Amino acid sequence: MKTILITGGAGFIGSHVVRLFVNKYPDYQIVNLDKLTYAGNLNNLIDVENKPNYEFVKGDIVDGEFIQKLFTEKKFDGVIHLAAESHVDRSISNPTEFVFTNVIGTVNLLNAAKTIWKDNFEGKKFYHISTDEVYGSLGDEGMFTEETKYDPHSPYSASKASSDHFVRAYLDTFGVPTVISNCSNNYGSFQFPEKLIPLFIHNIKNNKPLPVYGKGENVRDWLWVVDHARAIDVIFHQGKVGETYNIGGFNEWTNIALIKLMCRKMDEKLGRQTGESEKLISYVKDRAGHDLRYAIDATKIKRELGWEPSLQFEEGIEKTIDWYLENTDWLENVTSGDYQKYYEQQYVKR
Ligand code: NAD
Ligand code: TYD
Fold first, then answer.
1. Which of 65, 77, 212, 306 is deepest in the core (most CB within 10 A)?
2. Which residues line ligand 2 (CB under 6 A)?
């Protein structure tokens, strides 16, 4: 029996990772540690909450003393660290929060792993989940590989880059057995509707304006969240200590092309005339420091670990739209309360 700590398991990607591990590994005890910020939601995990190999702990990774105690009590064999502040726009309005959670929180976990595992690192693994945004922005050509130099531009990506450096430093200095993966933009069920895809599905459905930053020419490389969770499983079990793996779906879209695709699909699903939802597109002031293009070269993970995406994008986006249209209770629950305040501050005052 192994005890595995998953941080941020009540969030978007974390909930898919928890679900996969709880169902696939009945002989692992999965401990989900989450502060339940605005982005954390236990409704994401209703289907696994009563499983005997699952436990939820509410707590803050910024509280170093609490983290040390938790590690002493649970004696984790492995850590999959996803807890983070994750939204670029929020990092522009409140950068400091990102330093606390993403940098100090990560260092607290590394300290606890180092202390509890002492020098006996046999069979242990500290797996840090990072983003392609640490590599900065591409022009029209090229892709991010594991060797691309870090060049973060937003407070979010700067905080993730910093945490990645600490993770590598703890391996080099103290021998903590770490591994890192950097993934491209994820989409799918249970994503908080502040990010592009769920926000726009929500707005199209409610006939609200679709705020496109700048000219909508920025490019993102989209991966289905379930495929990211599968990659995390493969890397946690087979990834080599000290290595970095890039994860992506070779699936680049300009924002405007993606938005028009969503509009067309939703016209069909909502019984609207073709072109009706596109009328909601509203070009707004560009995001500060907006990275032009992200694209992941995911050759290494395929070659070395045999992972590749299971789903084509057209099918994935279809499933995703259907999920948000069917799960109106989930969407209404997360878009009440503080969400309204956030939305007004972010968009209405422009
Ligand atoms: P999310 O914002 O949906 O979830 C983050 C979770 O972390 C929430 O449940 C939140 O409550 C929890 N959390 C935040 N601060 C905490 C704290 N101080 N202590 C404990 N828990 C805390 O984020 P996500 O999109 O699921 O991203 C998860 C991880 O994957 C992040 O590390 C992110 O940088 C990385 N990532 C995300 C994407 C993406 O497209 N969403 C792509 C690549 C990498
Ligand atoms: P987002 O989902 O915030 O992910 P990230 O910034 O981490 O890539 O945004 C995806 C793209 O969509 C990004 O280029 C910014 C753009 N965008 C808009 O044009 N309007 C919006 O309201 C949002 C949230 C994003």
1. 212
2. 88, 185, 195-196, 199, 211-213, 218, 220, 255, 287
